[in-house]
Amino acid sequence: MNHYPLTLSHDRGAGQPPLIEETIGAFFDQIAERHGDREALVSRHQGLRYTYAQLRDAADQLASALLRRGLDKGDRVGIWAHNRAEWVLMQLATARVGLVLVNINPAYRVAEVGYALNKVQCKALVTMARFKSSDYLAMLRELAPELEMASPGHLRAARLPHLRYVAWLDEPGQAGEQPGMERFSDLFASGLVKDLRLPAAAAALTAEDPINIQFTSGTTGFPKGATLTHRNILNNGFFVGEAMKLTEADRLCVPVPLYHCFGMVLGNLAAFTHGACIVYPAEAFEPGAVLEAVAAERCTVLHGVPTMFIAVLDHPRFAGFDLSRLRTGIMAGSPCPIEVMRRVIERMHMAEVTIAYGMTETSPVSCQSGTDTPLAQRVGSVGRVQPHLEVKIIDPETGATVPPGATGELCTKGYSVMRGYWDDPAKTAEAIEDGWMHTGDLATMDAQGWVNIVGRSKDMVIRGGENIYPREIEEFLYHHPAVQDVQVVGLPDARLGEELCAWIVLKPHQHADEQAIRDFCKGQIAHYKVPRFIRFVEAFPMTVTGKVQKFKIREAMMIELALIEEKTA
């Protein structure tokens, strides 16, 4: 571990406690042995509760069922679903026997799910039947009409040549069959008698075996499948839990999606490695369901991206729920506005809330604040490097490590770095150099090791030769009394290269116009940082995980400006 103050922006995490060198299944067995009678999982929308012993037994039953479907170590098994008990059962069961769980975004549609399944050659798929207006089974049949004529376990679909088995998540008493597919309840029941191969399959695994594939966003091309091992995600879950000081007495509310590292690692694995209980309030994020779950289940921990916390705080019935047992949690996924952090601490009783930073390719967390981190560092940074990891800030042009306080690209090294992108050695080599994962994020590190994310390198705006970081302007505009949320992007400009554009969501019952925003900026920030274009919107385009899609804001504005130019020409 480095001694402070640092002379370069390069820091190493603590070397203790030691890394876990076991598989997820073996480690979970130990936790279940110690905490067998304690509650491990509550899925409120399904009315399901499991103790650790019950969850272990259910996962083993499902693992036996998967073996009986002809699946072997290393086979890829997709899950296309929102937050349900079956999701975590699949996470534990596949890890038990060495199947590679492939997380498929519920927002994917026909072409996207086809690409994902074929890219990693999924042999089996577990899918929702439908959710709200989305019919997942219909999408699957549109992709592969042959499923209508196939029998479970023997699928032959021309557009999905590797897929052999599909199970759909049914509800108790649900009528109707799905030709070519099996009910998940029937799949699960088939494992009631333990498969004799289960112990040997579990014993043959190592911590270095790939166990999970997660697709990156793909906003600049086709999604890439980040391949993660037991060692990657089990240790990251453990150390994230350590930073929050989790114990078996904690109850962690998980409204973030399980198909993303935030849910399955920072939620499920952080809780399970400490004997804590996880609570799913709903299939997908609903602020009212979060408030009900936290109050009814006496939750002490809550995770979310900033937009989720804003939605909870602004819920019309917020004051009617008892949140007094909340203590800690994680705010991550996008930069945390200072004012939002203060409201979470003061109004939600989360005095020990932490900030975490990472990316899918690093399992995901590289830096995190602690429960006792001073407020100034907590709201002005993403914490320090996690144990057994290294982070450094480099000059993107030269690769040299920059001095403390200078801006550069953040790189991460250590146990958390992915095995690579599935079947894509060229993209892997671009991202990982000498063990260092190049994040593409612009950051600074001070002499005490506190890291601050300035923005994505691709988001930096160059206006008239001035480098402008949108995060700085966003943080300033959050102080306007009428502004609830804001996103700043750069737009092409023939004269200056780029111009700034701000999209603003106003607080309920508040009013502001473009001139009011410009007047607020005048004399407070440099003139070239004042957005030229200001638009007031109801919401931002987002991924399912709550990340703002700035490229869609740019696209929408460029279309709007082109239409204006056409009319005035």
By CATH, the architecture of the domain at 24-38 and 50-215 is named: 3-Layer(aba) Sandwich
Give the CATH H-level superfamily of the domain at 24-38 and 50-215.
ANL, N-terminal domain
Distance N to C terminus = 62 Å
Shape annotation: globular
Largest sheet: 9 strands, mixed
Number of contiguous helices: 17
What is the C-level CATH assignment of the domain at 24-38 and 50-215? Alpha Beta
Please list the strands of the largest sheet in the order they lie side by side. Answer: 3-2-14-13-15-16-17-18-19
Explain what you see.
The longest helix has 19 residues, at 550-568. The strands form six sheets. Strands 3-2-14-13-15-16-17-18-19 form a nine-stranded mixed beta sheet, sandwiched between helices. With 569 residues, it is α/β, with parallel strands linked by helices. The model has no long low-confidence stretch (mean pLDDT 92). It contains 17 helices and 30 strands. Among the domains are: 24-38 and 50-215, Rossmann fold; 462-568, GMP Synthetase, Chain A, domain 3 (2-Layer Sandwich), CATH 3.30.300.30. It is globular and about 75 Å long.
